[in-house]
Amino acid sequence: METAARTRQNVRTERKRASVHNRTRKVLWCWLFIAPQLILFLLFTVYPIVMSYVYAFFDWSGYGPLQNFIGWQNFKETLTDPLFWNAFRNSLVFMAWLVGIQVPLALLLALLLNSSRMRGKVIYRTVYFLPVVTTTAVVGLVMRFIFGAYKGLANEVLMRIGILDKPVDWLGSADTAMLIVILVGIWKSFGMKLIYWLAGIQSLPRELFEAARIDGASALQLFRYITVPLLIPVGSVILLVSAVNALHVFDLVKAMTEGGPAFKTDMVDVYIYRYAFSGQGEARVGFASAAGVVYGIAVMFISLLLGGLVKLSGGRTNKGL
Predict the structure, then answer these.
(1) How far from 266 is each of 73, 85, 89, 226, CA to CA, in Å?
(2) Separation between Cα atoms, residue 114 and residue 121, nearest integer Å
(3) How far apart are CA 251 and CA 189, in angstroms?
(4) pLDDT, tens digit, 9 for 90 and up, residues 7-59
(5) Under 8 Å between Cβ of 217 and 225
(6) Exposure string (b/e) for 102-125, b if CB count within 10 Å is 16 or more?
């Protein structure tokens, strides 16, 4: 009996060891497949973020050792630089107009494309989503030619139909440059917001709409009393994502205007790039890092504020339902 019991115990022990060994192998294989992406993430995302906080306390050009420690001087210069606050204000203006126009417009179009009466929905979705997958720098260069001062397509068309008498320097004028950048930004990322809204609309329970139709609710009443309340949590997240993404616009502005004319379209990302990598004199990576840290903290504060609104709206909606 004792021998049989020991044999069973040994078998259980061996099985347990084999199970632990198999789980360990699976975990190791998982880490092996994750390792390349994790290493790249640490090298090109985490490490630059951490080092930017270090560089911000040095007067460093990006070459040579870190020797000239200047403390908070870069931060003081950033906070007292009118050009930084001009770029910060432009970033907020760009974000406000882009979100204010793009988010509700994408919602209305998503409602149309979700309608069962709409034909060719797949084609429309593809057309609206194509700018999203197009390289932003390429879009900026193309738009630079379209809105060119003299032989641009926009001026040619508007002059042919009689709206303009002479060419307009759309991107070279302080009155129109920001407007064009905002309109191109809205067009470029419109398809992504459309997909977000479509996903939210298609996740709504159909039985609520069917019951409301049976009770005689009109299309406007369905939208006001069912669609809008149920979409508030999704819409809050879309608003948050859109706002944060709009606060980081670099490649589009760099390709279209480079922050001009007279810094009218200068954004914080372009401002940081100009000091860190521009050929205008010696590069100031330390100062650019300080500006990036300040702007990062500001974006984090805006994100927390909008995140609080998301949580508040979601809680109210849950209570209402």
Answers:
(1) 23, 10, 9, 42
(2) 8
(3) 13
(4) 666 656 666 776 767 788 888 888 899 999 999 999 999 998 999 999 999 99
(5) yes
(6) bbeebbebbbebeeeeeeeeeeeb
Strands (E), 151-261: none
Contact between 314 and 321 under an 8 Å Cβ cutoff? The reply is no
Closest of 68, 51, 136, 84 to residue 272, by C-alpha:
84
Structure tokens at 139: 């879009």
Token code pair at residue 177:
């440059």
- Specify whether the CB–CB gap between 99 and 242 falls below 8 A: yes
Does residue 169 contact residue 149 with C-beta atoms inside 8 Å?
yes
The neighbour count for residue 85, using CB atoms within 10 Å, is: 13
Helix (H, G, I), strand (E, B), or coil: what is residue 171?
A: coil
Q: Is residue 278 over pLDDT 90?
A: no
Structure tokens at 138: 């390429």
Between CA 86 and CA 93 the distance in angstroms is: 11
* Phi, then psi, of 34 in degrees rounded to 5: -80, -25
Q: Give the distance, in angstroms, between the CA of residue 48 and the centroid of all CA atoms in the same chain.
A: 19
As a 3-state breakdown, the chain gives helix, strand, coil percent values, each rounded to 5, of 75, 0, 25
